Amino acid sequence: MSTKVILLGVFVVMLGLCLLRVFSYLTTSDLILSFTALILLWYTNETHLQRVQTSQQNDLMAKQLEIMRDSFILDQAKLRSSLEPILSYDGGMSGAIETIHVVNRGTTMRDVTIVGDENVSNARMDPYNFVGPSDRVKILLTWGTLPGEGICNFIVEYSNILGGRGSKHYRFNRNLDPSARLVERPTTG
User: Fold this and answer.
1) At what angle do helices 28-82 and 3-22 cross, to 10 degrees?
2) How far apart are the C-alpha atoms of 63 and 115, rounded to whole Å?
3) What share of the chain is helix, strand, coil (3-state, %, to 5)?
4) Each residue's pLDDT tens digit in the chain (189 positions)?
5) What is the DSSP-derived secondary structure letter of residue 128?
6) Rounded-to-integer distance, Cα 157 and Cα 161, Å
């Protein structure tokens, strides 16, 4: 019910009570008690309406906060991914020293070190101190005594543009098609 209808109803009831008082059907205390009861009924209805509105506002606020949280999480994921290098295979030469040409399709890397697995006796990146976006660099892998099947895993450790340290895990297989030779592996932790 709207507030205007309730106020009109209260006014009509009060007018009726006053007329009853005039004709001496009610005492003054009956009139005051009736008036108080009507005010309490009106106040209870108003309080209920306010609770309903507050509940609706709380629901809307919860939806807004959820949307803001999801947006924040997405922005953080974009920021994290923008702080990581993305190395893609761009050719190379096989031999005792495997030369892997890669292009950095991500952010700038500084102070790069390469850590190879047991199949690699020495690993390094040339240049190692600074690799910008779209730079083409070489990863030099010196195979151990037995190059095995031409497969190795290595980790690229780097500093990002904010100075934070990061690492990416890769698997190299020289026996595969060039587009599949260098694959980023998920970091196990």
Assistant:
1) 170
2) 47
3) 40, 35, 25
4) 576 777 777 777 777 777 766 666 767 777 778 778 878 888 888 899 999 999 999 999 999 999 999 888 888 777 766 778 888 888 887 777 888 888 888 888 888 888 888 888 888 888 778 888 888 888 888 877 655 677 888 888 998 888 888 888 888 887 887 777 888 887 654
5) -
6) 13
SS3 (DSSP) at 23: coil
CATH architecture of 85-185: Sandwich (2.60)
DSSP structure class, residue 26: S
C-alpha 125/C-alpha 98 separation (Å) is 12
Q: Is the pTM of this model over 0.70?
A: no
Contacts of 139 (CB under 8 A, 6+ apart): 99, 100, 102, 114, 123, 124, 125, 126, 154
Distances (CA, A) of 151 to 22, 135, 139, 170, 173: 106, 25, 14, 11, 4
